[in-house]
Specification:
Length: 327
């Protein structure tokens, strides 16, 4: 190849690279969003992540004038829906409403079908809520002391969790580690099916998202024995935390956060964060979430990243201590 041909080839490569960069920049410089958005919830309908997704999704749809569809993709402790988003095109039109099940699952199995940091873009921390230990009224106890006193009758019973490796699984492992209680796990595909079965008397005990049991507690169909957070739940002010009942330390709350696939353009992240921050300040949004047992939050991507890193260590340590690891 002579010098002129080499120069011509080099010029073509430079021109091609410039055109690609220009086209890419022009594409992402378009007003976002210019079409419908999909928020994938990798857990069952009715759970706290689903509630947050639908509340903020409706507000984003109103604000953006574009359809925002919430799609539940439960299964494999959240891995099915999460993996789908992690492998999607990073254009801002497929988003993920994630919670810390991602990290409890990682702690149990050692790895996920996707990398929890490298394959996802943190966008915003939106809410947090506790888990509750509930019993069917046929279990004649009202608090953890009474449950422990009845251990000869209740030990060996089955309890429902929101899935093997879920935060509810970790809560019960901590309870059993700090007491003389012993139960056999029945892992469901989300918290809602577990609530349904304990309501029906198919299982006597469950650990589930506290927001799901509020109406059933008020009607007397379920009884809450303890709350997993460090402070009492505002909607259940008479129910003591596990820490108050002698289990120290004990502070587990499930967070809800919006994420996207890795490589999400910075302008898209900024646009979503800016609009969500304003949405989370709307009184009706705060009221809806609080009435659902979810504390509204406005954590940016940096705060969310730090939380993910800290919780990954916390759940790994719990899994090791309770010998929950499957690897």
């Amino acid at each position: 190849m002579n010098a002129r041909s080499l120069f011509s080839l080099g010029r073509s490569v430079v021109l091609g690279t410039w055109l690609l960069t220009a086209c890419t920049t022009a594409f992402f410089a378009q007003e976002y969003p210019s079409r419908g958005i999909r928020i994938v919830v990798p857990y069952s309908a009715g759970g706290s992540s689903d509630v947050v997704a639908r509340v903020v999704g409706a507000e984003l749809e109103r604000k953006w004038g574009q359809a925002v569809t919430v799609e539940n993709r439960p299964g494999a402790a959240g891995n099915i829906g999460s993996t789908e988003v992690a492998r999607s095109t990073p254009d801002g039109y497929t988003l993920l409403m994630q919670n810390d099940t991602m990290l409890t699952n990682l702690a149990v199995h050692g790895k996920l079908p996707y990398h929890h940091e490298n394959d996802l873009t943190p966008i915003m921390l939106l809410g947090m809520g506790p888990l509750a230990l509930v019993v069917h009224p046929s279990i004649n106890v009202t608090n953890m002391a009474e449950l422990q006193a009845a251990r000869d009758q209740v030990n060996g019973l089955s309890y429902g969790s929101c899935g093997i490796g879920s935060p509810s699984h970790f809560v019960m492992e901590l309870i059993m580690d700090k007491t003389a209680l012993s139960f056999t796990q029945v892992g469901y595909r989300g918290c809602s099916p577990a609530v349904k079965d304990v309501l029906g008397g198919h299982i006597p005990i469950a650990v589930v998202s506290a927001n799901l049991v509020l109406p059933h507690v008020q009607s007397g169909r379920l009884r809450v024995l303890g709350i997993s957070s460090a402070e009492r739940m505002a909607l259940l002010p008479d129910i003591p935390t596990f820490q108050e009942q002698g289990m120290h330390p004990f502070d587990i709350s499930t967070w809800k956060a919006l994420m996207g696939p890795a490589g999400l353009p910075l302008n898209v992240v900024k646009k979503i964060t800016h609009d969500l921050t304003r949405i989370m300040d709307i009184p009706r949004v705060q009221e809806h979430l609080k009435n659902s047992g979810i504390e509204p939050l406005r954590g940016d991507a940096t705060a969310l990243t730090h939380l993910i890193q800290a919780d990954a260590v916390k759940y790994r340590d719990i899994a090791r201590s309770a010998q929950m690891q499957a690897y």
